[in-house]
Structures are given as C-alpha cells and as structure tokens.
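Feature request disguised as a bug: please show the residue count (333) next to Lipid A biosynthesis acyltransferase in the output. Example input:
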Amino acid sequence: MEQRLSPLKANAVAWLWKRLSGLTTPQLWCMAQPLARVVQLLNPRERRVTRRNLGQAFPALDKGARAQLVTESLAHSTATMLELGKVWLGDEDAVRDSILEVHGRNLLDDARAEGRGVIVLAPHFGNWEVLNFWLSSHFPFTAMYEPPKFERLDPIIRHGRERMGASLVPTNSRGVAALLKALKRTEAIGILPDQEPGRGSGVFADFYCRPAYTATLLPKLVARTDARVITGVAQRLEDGHGFAIHFLAADEGVYDEDEATSARGVNASVEAAIALAPAQYQWEYKRWRKSPEEIAKQSGWREKRFYPRDDSWLSLKGWRRHLKRRRRNASQD
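Example output, currently without the count:
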C-alpha cells in the first residue's frame, strides 16, 4: 500500500484514520463491504491476484464458492485498513474492549515460566495490529519496523505500534541482534512469516503444495535461544463485533536445524492459522511471486543475504566481522 501512495494520498489516509478512530468495529465492518466493491472497480489488480491465489491454494473449490471467497477476502482486507485508525489512534479502552476472546494464552505463559523466549509468527490474517496491541499490553514485546515510504504516515504507525509498550527495531542486522537479545531475556518477539525475504535470505518451501520463497531467520533464532514458536492471529468476529485472539502451537518442523524443513514448518503453521477463517487471510499479497527456476538464474543471489548462512554472526566478534564484510561488499558493488 505504502509504495503506491503519493504524498497527497498519504495525507488523505492519515486524515481518514483520524476520523475513523472513534467508530466501533461493527460500524467499520459495515463501511468495509460497500467500500471493498468500489476499491475493486478502481483497482482490479487486487481482485485478480486474490482470485489467482485462492485458485492455487484451494483448487477443489467450484467457481461460485471461489468467487464468494474472493469477495469476502477483499471485504476483510478493506476492514483491516479502516480499523487501523481505531487500533493506532483510538481510545485504548475501546480497542481493549473489542478483544472479546483469547485462546491459547497458556502457550505463552508456559514458555515464559520455563524460562524460554517466545517467537510469535504473525501472518497477515484478520487484523495483525490488534494482535500487536494485545501482545504489547501483556508481555515485553519486540518487533521489526520499516518506516513507510512517506514520512507523513511514520509517526502515526510508529506511535500506534509502540503505545502499549512494544519495542520496534530496524529491519536490518542490528534489528536481528535486538530480537536475539529479547529472546535471551525470555521476552516475546514478532515475526511476519509470510513476507517475502530479501534475495539470498530464504529458501523455497511448500505453501499449499506450491514452492514459496520463505525466510530462514527463524531456525537461527531458535537454535541460539531455545525459544518456543507460536502462531498468533486476531480473527474478526461475525459482523465485525470485535476480535478473537488465537495462539496456536507451531508446526514441529519449525524447530528443525535444516532451513528448508524449518521453512516448511513455518508455512504449515500459517496454513493452520488460515484454516480458522480462510477469507480473513490477505490473499492479494503475491506470495508465489518468485519461482525456484527464476531466482536460480539471478547471479549471486545466494551471496546477497540479510544475515550470513552460518550462525557465527550471533557472537560479538562474529557480528563485527559480518558488518565489516557487508561494508566491504557494499563498497565493491
């Protein structure tokens, strides 16, 4: 969204979020459904990508059922965008009161009682900002943050994500080190498991039986911290009457030292969350944008990594060597 916005549109979005921040979630849901139809007319790409992705994920669905799922999915995505103003700028008590159910909290409590950090896989399902609100209200919580393209939106987003106590770290190697330190303090961190990683920082692993380029950061963090991995989502309840937070035990594959096996476990964990309500996943994201054949043709793609392939960088000395290599490689490009 941010990359497509002009500064004028960014100002309009900021104004809209402020105006919507006082509405209730049922009111926002009622607005989302007709607005989603307008958005589809003005931007048919979202509908095309959603239809194609749903066809790949659920090939057994007949044409009518798939079309209905496309319509519902785009309505939920529109609702999420409208709800951001409420979550980031609205009354804290009102946001808190909109969270009507919490399932699986014992998974987090048990892990911390055992002296283990918690890695929360937070896919683009329901309203992930509501999940951030709840997590940072109840636990020391750290997540990566990349400022939006337009500075006008940055203070709104940053304030919204930090206002309940979350710690935001940059999406670079220093941010990864901050995540590691948080886990060693037995705190919780959040990772977006369905966001395509940078070139060389992922492997292909099946997502609904089709290879999807998936980040490999998770097994490195788990190996060095013995953290527990949990999937977390904030599911929108019927007619927008609030949210249900769900915490699910991650697929056991995420704990495997092999990057490909761990990545498949991550995708299996996302699939399990989607099964709660398939229409609430953000299907308009091009999850299968790259193919193994396409990326293998790119010269040096394995060397351009967000972090090294081994885990030597997780020590202070190794960390300094890693930064030195990055600066040297950057000067040579």
